[in-house]
Amino acid sequence: MRLFVAVVPPAAVLDDLAGELALVRERLASDGPADNYRWSLRAQWHLTLAFLGEVPDSARTDLHRRLGRAAGRCPPLRLRVAGGGGFGSVRRARVLWAGIDGDLRPLRELAGSVSAAARRCGLDVREGRFRPHLTLARLREPADVREVTAALADYAGPEWIADRLELVASHLGQGEGRHSRYETVADWPLTGGADPKSAER
């Protein structure tokens, strides 16, 4: 299975972001064609902690056990969606994203624990600086997104308590408009020291 590990914001948080993004998209449309933007579906908005790629079934039992341990060491986190930016730069971006604010230090520690757990299972997880974000759009050609990021600069969504770690399967091209379809296959509570139980789905 093609898997990643994520924190998924609740519906109220996604609703608020969707409302803000609708205003941004209207502004883009009024300024001219926005065909360069391939917008992510609301159902795809999540905070990726580690992308695992294709994971063999033989590794999943050990992976579940280790992810459960990582979740058990992390307390619930206070987070909010705030601001935005572009990868690789706002002047020549290929990806438009919304930022994350709040308990960032423990969030980064959780991401590090998740990546370490995956590597101990023999998975090839790329190392690098963790930049918490939600992907809003991918650009077909690199473009200047400063107008969009300026519109998002003052955005601060409702705070929420992130209390679960999710293991998500990505089914390529099976979603709406040939987008990927995401399916949570297991999750664990963030319990800050208690012994978590994996919740299979």
Which percent range describes the beta-strand content?
35-45%
Helix and strand run: EHEEHEEHEHEEEE
Outline the biggest β-sheet.
Answer: 5 strands, antiparallel
CATH topology: Cyclic Phosphodiesterase, Chain: A
Q: Counting H and I runs of at least 4 residues, what is the number of helices?
A: 4
Task: Provide the fold topology.
Blueprint: E1 2-7, H1 11-30, E2 37-39, E3 47-54, H2 57-72, E4 77-87, E5 93-102, H3 104-120, E6 133-143, H4 146-152, E7 160-162, E8 164-171, E9 181-189, E10 199-200
Antiparallel strand pairs: 1-3, 1-8, 2-6, 4-5, 4-7, 5-6, 8-9, 9-10
GO molecular function, one term: ligase activity
Keywords: Hydrolase, Ligase
Motif (HXTX 2): 133-136
Structure in words:
This protein has 201 residues and is α+β, with helices and mostly antiparallel strands. It has one domain: Cyclic Phosphodiesterase, Chain: A (Alpha-Beta Complex). Helix content is 30%, strand content 35%. It has 4 helices and 10 strands; from the N terminus they run E-H-E-E-H-E-E-H-E-H-E-E-E-E. It has helices spanning 11-30, 57-72, 104-120, 146-152, and strands spanning 2-7, 37-39, 47-54, 77-87, 93-102, 133-143, 160-162, 164-171, 181-189, 199-200. Strands 3-1-8-9-10 form a 5-stranded antiparallel β-sheet, covered by helices on one side. A 5-stranded antiparallel β-sheet has the order 2-6-5-4-7. Helix 2 runs antiparallel to helix 3 (104-120). It is globular and about 50 Å long. The relative contact order is 0.26. Mean pLDDT is 89; it is low at 194-201.
